[in-house]
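Quick question, first post here. What does this chain look like in 3D?
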Amino acid sequence: MSEIKIEHENDGRRGSFFIQEGAKRFAEMVYVMAGPKKMIIEHTEVDDSLQGQGIGLKLLKELVDYVRKEEIKVIPLCPFAKAMFKKKEELKDVLN
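> Answer (accepted):
Ran it through. Tokens below.
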């Protein structure tokens, strides 16, 4: 995989931040909206080929940038996201 580019898709209710090359998704952080200003992070998955590169945290930081701009609060149900919010003090301002 060449340059890592994080993309975002959202249908108004569900969405994800993801890394894709061709038809294959190598990583994604999936969320669902629980109201106009509340987001639940449901799931994070990173392909084995990208393990150990901090990809999950990069996805989370992209999501945090987005919710800060949109003034959305986050509920991390995903175990990975929950652990990262505990570890990273600078991300906690977006928690519900």
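The chain has one domain: 6-79.
The two ends are 35 Å apart (CA to CA).
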